[in-house]
Amino acid sequence: MELLLSVLVCLSLTRTHAQTSERPDCYECDEDLFCNCSAKTLHRVPIVPTNVLSLDVSFNEIESITEEDLTVYTALRTLKLQKNKLGAIHTDAFHSQSNLEELDLSFNALEDISSLWFSSLRSLKHLNILGNRYTTLGSVGLFQFVENPALRTLRFGNPSIEDIKRNMLNKIGRLDELTFVGGKLRSYESGSFKTARPIREVSLSLQRLFQDDPALVSKILRDVSHPETSLIIRDVSLETREPIQAFKEVRDGSTSRLTFQNTSTTDEGVTLLLEVLDGSPMSYLGLEDIRLVGEGLWERAWRTHYENLHTMFIRNIEIQGFFRFSSMIQLAFLLKPLTKISVVNATVFVIPCFTTYFLQKVEYLDLSQNLLSDIT
């Protein structure tokens, strides 16, 4: 009998060791209990010290997270899993992570996002699920099963997402930052991007959606335009009237801070945008990584009014066919109310004397990384 019991114990220990040995060890941890296990060709979540606070397993080959992989790491505050091959996560994978504040699952192969993953994450403040393969987030809110979620930053979307439901942000009373990528979106229910309090910053990468479905874009902009919301529009081409008309929602929503990033436009497109936003209370305008084409024809822009504009930030402007541009002096009226101006890396080589007449209110001027010389 004793011999049989000993054999069973040995078999049990052997099986346990075999199961554990499938997971690699990673003890590259510092005194702050941060374990850096990034880019080590790992195929499983590694075994790390149980008191770990921050775990980075990004840029590996991890395909799944089981129910047991994270169970013992109850003190975990930050978990970075981006740039793996994650296609499956057990519904209870994060059940022990009630202290987790940051979770990055971006750029994996997740085809579904389950609300059950987040049911125990009552401390979660930052969630990134960008760049996966899901086409919808489902009909249940992401934090439907969490009372008073602490979420402050949400980044989601991908080139394949097609559908956004209205209850997606249910129970989330306040967001500081919302980032969405969705150039192939087909359906958006009004109110989907609204929370109890205005979102502090919204970044939208809608790409060709401005051309393909401007009515859908208008619905999105209507939800996110608010005096207390900084709006960032990325990865877009604004050249013709129809896609630019959607910015009426930005004006009507009294958006005060508007930034364009990685945007292509023309002199006609700029004029149309100024006409659509005419009379808005916008106080900040940002232009970053802009490609501009045209001949410098801005006549109609003179009729627009931007008395509330006090800050303009311009960085990395490329004027294609610059030699064809007659002048930008017709846009100088935009400088008159400004108190802060930054024009960085925009190939500025001269400032006409006439332009200085419009700079009477300027208190801060940044012309760094340009072509100005002593002779100028």
TrEMBL record:
A single MF term (Gene Ontology): triacyl lipopeptide binding
BP-aspect Gene Ontology terms: inflammatory response; toll-like receptor signaling pathway
Compartments where located: Membrane
Membrane topology: Single-pass membrane protein
GO cellular component: plasma membrane; receptor complex
Keywords on record: Membrane, Signal, Transmembrane, Transmembrane helix
Leader peptide range in chain numbering: 1-18
UniProt superkingdom: Eukaryota
Protein's name in the database: Toll-like receptor 2
Organism: Ameiurus melas (Black bullhead)
